[in-house]
Structure formats: structure tokens, C-alpha cells
């Protein structure tokens, strides 16, 4: 699977979770974020055979120092989340929303961590093991505080409360240190920044308010922009905190640097090299563009640490005259 396919899968996952918001609300009323299911009463001991049916939640579990016995489509985790690394012996339990029940039965998990999008299958899943429903932070108006809270919910459920606190403290430290380093070299903060990923050679997905990326930019002191401020020309964003715009609209922000998330495929690079519009963009002619590492826009706290450090490195590269797609 190529990187754009991976990003598309991540976005499809996020959109699916939003379309199930009504189900999520019902789940909240019946114990969202709590162990549920007929076997939950018996789950008094710390679970040690955990299955996760979501990649960002897998990231969080690994960050807590717990390796799951099974994960949905683990190879996709390795491509769209990347870190923490997922051991090769973790079993593939099927697709995100179409698990293989025979494999689940053989694994005999004592906890399954799912999302609100799994609500239609929860009753079946709970015949096998208690479930813990997390992941609503992706549809929250303030996703960063919600992500932090859910990290601690998971930590409590798997008996790793201290590890959860350590993840939060480490995240605070990484972000504070990045902010301090950026502030010491003001030339890196002169220009506002557009954070986007390529959909194709003519359209981009631009991240703004309501996204985790925007929250990270604000925390480290970087001005994130998503279109001209106010008026009819503003770029409309959906509930995910991003806008899909044509490449031409980047001309509306000639003063902004452009940071592209994730790897750019060779075919995309070739198309951009032949695009007169792309080559004429102010961020390209002034070498104020850079590529960030692969980071899922709805990833966990490790992903957000990596994003913040990637932004710092990219702005340093631009300030030193080395901007470009590399």
C-alpha cells in the first residue's frame, strides 16, 4: 500500500467515525470509555491479552508499554502510524470494521479496544471479551484535551496509570522544548504556516482549527493558517478541522510557508514538477516549503510529539534557505 493510500484509509476511518456520531452518543450513555459486555464483571485482573481495532489506539497502547496480541491490519499501522514500532508477531485480526471472528476466538483476548464506529458489532465482540470504547477525540471540537483524557482512560483500564502520566508529561516536555527552541530563533516564526497533504496534483487537504495538527502548532508557538481570514474567500472546514482546496487557492496566502505531511510518491513528484501552478506558488519560488515525516492527523500523543518536532525541523530548514520538497 502506498503512502497516499494509507492517508486515504486514515481519512476514511475518521469520516466513518464521524458518520457514527449518533451511535457514539448512545455508546457514551451506556458506558463509553468503560469496560462493557457480559464478561466485564469478571475482568477484575489487569488484562494481558489485548486486541485493538484501531491504529491510533494501538499507538497509545504501545506508548503505555503494552504490546497487543492482535491488531486490525497491522501492516497499515506500520505505514500510517509508524511509531511506536509494532512487533512483527502481533496477529492480524482482519480489517478495521470487519474483524475475523475465528481469529479473535483463537486469540482468546481478555480485552478488546474498539471505537464508536464499532458500535454495530459490539454485541458480537462482547461475546468474546469485554470491550473498551475509545477514539471519540477524533470528532471532538477540542481533540487535544480529549486525546489526553482518553490516553489516561486507557492507561487506567490496562493497569498502566503511571505510564499514562509519563506519556502526558513527556508530551508536555517535548512541546515546551520545541516552543522554546523556536522562540530563540525568531526568523523561523516570521511567516504563517499552511499544513496540508496532497490529495492529487491539483488538490490539498489543509488542516486548521479543530484538528490535532492545529493544536500542536498553537502549542509550539507557530501561526497556522487555513485561508484568508474572514469574508467570503475563507476556506470552509468540516468537523475534522480541515478544508479540501484546489492548489490555486494557495496564491491567496503568498506570505505563508507550506508544510506537506507524509512522503510524496515519485508519481506525485513527477506531476508536481510538470505543474506550472505548483512551480509558481510563492512558497515554492521563495523556497518556503518542506515535507514533514509520515504522521497520522488523528494519531496519538507519540504522533503529536513527532509532528511538533517535524515542524520545528522543517521551519529550521526553511529559515536556513534549504526549503523545498527534497
UniProtKB/TrEMBL annotation:
Pfam families membership: Peripla_BP_2
One Gene Ontology term, aspect cellular component: outer membrane-bounded periplasmic space
GO biological process entries: iron coordination entity transport
Residue ranges annotated for the Fe/B12 periplasmic-binding domain, each copy included: 49-326
Keyword NADP: no
Keywords in alphabetical order: Ion transport, Iron, Iron transport, Signal, Transport
Localization per record: Cell envelope
Tree of life domain: Bacteria
Gene3D superfamilies per record: Nitrogenase molybdenum iron protein domain (3.40.50.1980)
Signal peptide as annotated in the record: 1-42
Stored PROSITE patterns: FE_B12_PBP, TAT
PANTHER family in the record: IRON III DICITRATE-BINDING PERIPLASMIC PROTEIN, IRON(3+)-HYDROXAMATE-BINDING PROTEIN FHUD
Family the UniProt entry places it in: Belongs to the bacterial solute-binding protein 8 family.
Protein name: Twin-arginine translocation signal domain-containing protein
Protein source organism: Pararobbsia silviterrae
Top-level taxonomy: Bacteria, Pseudomonadati, Pseudomonadota, Betaproteobacteria, Burkholderiales
